[in-house]
Amino acid sequence: MDIEVKFDPRYTVPKVMVLTDRLTEEINALVARLSEETPQLIAGFQGDILRLIEPQELLRVYSSDKKVIAVTADGEFILRQRLYEIEDRLVGTKLVRISNSEIINMAKVRSFDLSIAGTICATLFDSTKAYVSRRYVTRIKKILGI
Questions:
Q1: What share of the chain is helix, strand, coil (3-state, %, to 5)?
Q2: What is the reported pLDDT for 39?
């Protein structure tokens, strides 16, 4: 896909135009993402304090003991949504589901260890290790281009 951005003072509101020879699934998905008005901010709680978290701040989101926890450089936050609801809000970001209980930010991964048979170990910038379950290995390899 070829992407071009032009600056024009006549447009005070951004305008997106898709030029193509035919309608494809990729174009439909792009239009759906651009049309989406779902806010991507995540509301996280530390005790009685509510903090709005930008998706790019997240290192990982995981479920443990029936709680969904978001991890940022500022600490851990309890979320009131289920993991699949968080995943839906993060469509179009660099956050990717790696197992039934975890989502990681691909932009915050230091390295991937492919030596473990059938799975991948991702080491995040905070030295946390996250394991890609067998079910999600193909998706992660596709994202990595391997």
A1: 25, 35, 40
A2: 59
Q: Rounded to 5 degrees, what are φ and ψ at 90?
A: -100, 10
Residue with token string 């473990």: 116
pLDDT mean values, one per 10 residues, the chain (146 residues): 79 80 85 68 90 93 95 94 90 90 95 86 93 91 87
Instruction: Assess if residue 134 is contained within a domain.
Output: yes
Nearest to 105 by CA among 146, 139, 141, 72: 72
Determine how many CB atoms are found less than 10 A away from the CB of residue 8.
Answer: 7
Decide if 137 contacts 120 (C-beta within 8 A). Answer: yes
Residue 33 pLDDT: 74
Which pLDDT belongs to residue 79? 95
Whether the CB-CB separation of 101 and 44 falls below 8 Å is answered with no
Burial of 140 (0-12, 13-18, 19+ CB in 10 A): buried
Q: Is the dihedral of CA 47, 53, 58, 60 positive or negative?
A: positive
Q: Considering only the C-alpha atoms of the chain, give the largest distance between any 2 of them, rounded to a whole number of Å.
A: 56
Look at the chain and report how many structural domains it folds into: 1
- The CATH number given to whatever domain includes residue 108 is 2.40.50.1020
